[in-house]
Amino acid sequence: MTTKTRSRLSGYLFLLPYLTLFVAFMLLPLAYGLWLSFQKYEMLSRHRPQFIGVANYAEALGDRYFWKALRATCLFVVWSVPITVAAALLLALALDAVPGRRQEIYRLAIFLPTMITISVVGILWRWFYNSEFGVFNAILHVKVPWLTQPHWAMASIVLMTLWWCAGGPMVVLLAGLRQIPQAYFEAAALDGAVGARRFFFITLPLLKPALLFVTVINVIASFQIFGQTFLVTRGGPELYTRVLVQYIYETAFNNYRLGYGAAMSWMLFLIIVTFSILQFRILREK
């Protein structure tokens, strides 16, 4: 056995544990879910799963609750992603201008909420939003219907998600800012480019790869929103915040229709892939 062959074999052996887990817990469940989406599989039925082709997908296309859940999901994505990315960019720019160890303290304070589990965040923000003794209404001295009015409920979920998630993209963008050579800014200063010109003609173009990564990751995560709405609003009021993942969960595990739930899961997967490809085509570097 040559040295080159031995080196390749060693590499594959190091990869083997990860590949085994990846196949066992990712690829096989995905394949099983795809097979399940073509079956009429109801857990409480005495009948064995029956192949019905694309009937589950056709049912989803005609299901008004599916479209209502998809609309709520898209509304959350449209609200949450631009606000989160913009807030993360502003925080990164502000932190980049802070000198010394203070920057580390501020960065830790902003990033800390992302380390809290969604169950704790949900309980905490339900208390914040409580219409009778909530923190926000006590501060504002008014009774804002945070969770009882449709538009207020979705805005409340977006605000909660912003507080919980903005620290992650902020750290990525801050790292991107530190990768920009100072020579560009020095040359721009000699040419009189300061303030907004410096940001739009130097910082923003050179930060584009980090912004693309942050935007794509946030879109993917936002389409999969579940914990915030499930814990805080339970999909209400009037199903206005019942997002698609929550509807899939209720269909598969509350109504025991695993085949129909798997079909909707794959439809959501195709939607996420489509949006991700569009973002790469629009935002990628020329």
What does it look like?
The protein is an all-alpha fold. The chain folds into 2 domains: 1-27; 38-283, Orthogonal Bundle (MetI-like fold). 73% of the residues lie in helices and 1% in strands. It contains 14 helices and 2 strands. It has helices spanning 3-37, 55-61, 64-96, 102-111, 118-129, 135-140, 150-165, 167-178, 182-190, 196-206, 208-223, 227-232, 244-254, 258-283; strands at residues 39-40, 50-51. The chain has a two-stranded antiparallel ribbon with strand order 1-2. α3 (64-96) packs across α7 and α11 packs antiparallel against α14 (258-283). The chain is globular. The model has no long low-confidence stretch (mean pLDDT 89).
Instruction: Give the tally of structural domains.
Output: 2
Report low-confidence residues grouped into runs of 5 or more: none
Lateral strand order in the biggest sheet: 1-2
| Main β-sheet description | 2 strands, antiparallel
CATH superfamily of the largest domain: MetI-like
* CATH class division of the largest domain: Mainly Alpha
Q: Kindly report the average pLDDT value.
A: 89
CATH architecture label of the largest domain: Orthogonal Bundle
What is the terminal separation in angstroms?
Answer: 45 Å
Given the structure, what is the number of helices?
14
Structural class: mainly alpha
Rg, alpha carbons: 24 Å
Q: State which percent range the strand residues make up.
A: under 5%
Summarize the amount of helix as a percent range: over 70%
Order of helices and strands: HEEHHHHHHHHHHHHH
Annotation, overall tally of beta strands: 2
Choose one word for the global shape: globular
- The CATH topology of the largest domain corresponds to MetI-like fold
Oligomer: single chain
